[in-house]
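Can anyone check this?
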Amino acid sequence: MRSVDEHLTEILGGVAVLPPLDMALLEAQGTVLAEPVSAPVPLPPFDNSAMDGYAVVAADIAAATEADPVALPVIGDIVAGDSGVSAIRPGMTARIMTGAPLPAGADAVIPVEWTDGGNATVRVSRAAPEGNYIRRAGEDVVAGQVVVDAGTRLGAPQIGMIAAVGRSRVTVRPRPRVVVVATGDELREPGSPLGHGQIWESNAYMLTAAVAEAGGVGYRQATVEDEPGKVLEMLEDQLVRADAIVTTGGVSMGTKDVVKEVLTGTGTVGFHKVRMRPGKPQGFGLLEGTPVFTLPGNPVSAYVSFQVFVRPALRAMQGLSSEPLPTVSAVLAEDVKSPAGLRHFLRGKLSFDRGSYTVTAAEVQGSHQLGSLASANALIELPEDVESLPAGSHVDVMRLPS
């Protein structure tokens, strides 16, 4: 058997970073930026008002109070988007709207709440310092500043920032297109009736969702029966649309482990036993240059294998670090046991209280028991040399996507 780290190293050495694409800004959501984006102009590009109110000279209202307001003539209105050049002299004011350019000569903005709201003449009841409620040019971003670094996954704030500096298109690493397929004569589509010995297919649904959580685009392929010719034909057909293929089932030692049968010796795909639980039977390789991950058929084994092996590979394909799920140190709430020589991933419940994490292992840990996975929010990672740990021990815990 090989170790988890050895298998992961082979996988990461076999996947390549996807070539960059030029994409429209909204289409690029969820992709990874392949270029730094800089601001061609300062943001904001001009001094503007942070409030609806009046642009004034601060010295004119220095003595203003509720009991003795200062009256100023209003010479006009300035609205957001106003392209005209405006100015005021001492002793005058202009009504101004949020985001509107500050008129020359003004050095403060008085919110309308500090006034009587007058149109021709306004009475100001509070003094204000210079710069009051003014957004200065460049106070957010200076010209030439990198506003989003290469290697950043583009979410809503980053999309907004790139639009704010005038870009409508960006060069990105695309989200990997991943085809997911489950094999097995016993599998039936959810919503269809079951016959004796049959189960509803769940793995491909689960793994397709996991692809999306990992930043990819998942395509669930219809279930394939355990017939070698059909399985190989399906895999070859999917190569035209897939940056990677994930199969689940048919990779162990059974007489109808058809995925292992048809892919052994095909391309560079190889099959191994990995020192881990759950998920011992694993396969990986390139089929006509496309990475193929062959995961076990037991649902928990498939899911854990995805998080340990496939997720880091999908990140690497996007030019990101191949880091595992976010990991924290937690205190065991109860004793745990682990098989000697295997890295054990236990489903658990992670909680945070008074500045520290505590984790409790699920009562059942069978690789077929999807119920305990659905209610878990973490995987407790026990090293190969650990056979038991008492309550109170510190353990590494991988936080599952929520």
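Reply from J.R.: I decoded it. The first strand starts at residue 21 and ends at 24.
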